[in-house]
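It would be a great kindness if you could assist me with a short task in structural biology. A protein sequence and the C-alpha cells that stand for its backbone fold form the material at issue. I should value your view on which stretches of the chain appear to form regular backbone elements. The record follows directly beneath this note.
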Amino acid sequence: MTEGLTTGDWLSILLFASVIGTLLIGYPIALTLAGTSLIFAWIGHAFGVFDYHLLGGLPSRYLGSMINEVLVAVPLFIFMGLILERSGIAEMLLTTMGQLFGKLRGGLAYSVVVVGALLAASTGVVGATVITMGLISLPAMLRAGYDPKLATGTICASATLAQIIPPSTVLIFIGDLLAGVNQAAQLRMGNFSPDPISVGDLFAGALLPGMMLCGLYILWVVYKAILQPETAPALKMTPDERRGLPKRVVLALIPPLALIVAVLGSILGGVATPTESASIGAIGALVLAGLNRRLSFDTLSYAARNTMVTTSIIFVIVLAASLFSLIFRGLGGEHLVETALKNVPGGAMGAMLAVMAVMFVLGFFLDTFEIILITLPICGPALIMLGLDPLWIGVMIGVNLQTSFLTPPFGFTLFYMRGIAPRSVTTGQIWKGALPFVALQIFALVVLWSFPPLATWLPGEIFRQEQAVATPTRSEKGGIDSLIDDSIPDEETDKLPDPYSSPRN
C-alpha cells in the first residue's frame, strides 16, 4: 500500500496527523491549522514538492469568505438565539409543556424533547438551548424523582437537535462548503454546468432526519417509563397549577411557532434566502423579547458582544482552514485521499463508511467545526466523484457530528450540563445518561444510510425545478467554498485559470 507514495504524499499524511495531534494536546485550532500548515509548506518547498506561488491565492479566497452573503446568516442566527435565550420564551415553554405532559409517566422528559425541537427550529444554537433547559427542567425533574441519568441525558440530547433541525449554523457551514466541494468535483468530472446546491436544500434535507431523532428520543423515554417507571415518575400537580393550563399552553406556543414560520417557513417556501430569513428571525426575536418585557440595553449588549466573539472565533478558524486546505492540496494530499477512498472495499458506500467512521471517532476529541473544516474539503470531492449524492452526504455528516456533542470526554453539552447540574449529579451519571442517546443517533444514521430519500425527497419536492433528484448538485460557489482549492488541477488542465479566483457577487 505504501510503495507508490511520493514525498508529497508522506508530507500530506504527516500534516494531517500533526494537526490532529496538536489539537488533542490543546492548542487553539486556528493557530494549529495555520501554523502547522505553514511549517509543512516550508518543508515541502525544501523537498521540492510544494510551490510557494500557490499561497498567492489566499487573499482572494479570504475575501470570498468575508463577502459571502450566505455566511452573513451565521452571526444573525447566533444573535437571534442569544436574544431568545434572554426573552423568557424558553422558560414559559418548559413550564407549560411540563405541566401539560407532567401527569404522564415520563411527561417531563417528553416536554423537554418537544421544547428542544421547538427551540432548535427557532434558535439553532446548541449551547444556549442546553443551558436554558438545564437550568429550568433539571431541578424540576430531580424534584419529581427522575433518574439523574435519564434527566441529564434527555436534556443534553434534546439540546443537540439545534445542530440538525434547521436553522442551524452547523448546517450553514456544511451547505456552503458542499457548494464548493460539489462544484470542484463536477468540474473534474467534465460537468461545467452542474445543478447548484444551496443551504436551503440542506435545511430541507435535514428536517425529516431531525424529526426522526425527536421520535426516537420520545420512544426511549416511553420505554423507560413503561419498563422502569421509577426512573420517570408522573408529576404531581395542584388544582391551581391545572387551572387555565390549555390557555397557557397556547400562549406559550404562539411565539416560537410564529418565529419558526417566519424563519424556516420563509426559507422552505422559497420566499427568502437563509440570510434574509436570519434577519427576519433576529428582528422577530427582538420583538418577542420586547413583548415579554425582557428587552433592555443589557440584553442587547449581551447578545451583541457574544455574537461578535463567537462569529470572530468561527471565521478565524475558517481562514486558518483555508490555508490548511490549500497546502494539503499543494502537497498532493487530495489525490492521495481520492486514491485511498477509491481502493476502499465496497466501492462508494465503503468509502462513505470509512469517512463516517473517521468523523465519528474524531467527534470524541474535536469540535464539530474543526472536524467539518478539516475533513469535508479533503474527502468531499472524492465521495462525490464516486457518485454519491452531495445532499445526502451533508445530512449524514450533520447527524454523525451531532454525536460529537454527546460523546465523552469532550462532548460540549456534557460540559455545559456539568456546569449547571447540582453536585448531587455526578459526572459519571451525565456521561452514562448520554450514551443511550448516542446509540439512538447511530441508529438514525443507519436508517438514513438505508433510506437516502429521507434526506433527498423533501428538497426535491420543495425546490423542484427542471432537474430531477437523480442529479443531486444544487449550489453556488461561495464563501467557504474558497477553502476548496481547485486551482491545483490535473496535469492536463494546468494551463486553465482558476474559475473561482474571483469572488461571487
About this structure: The radius of gyration is 23 Å.
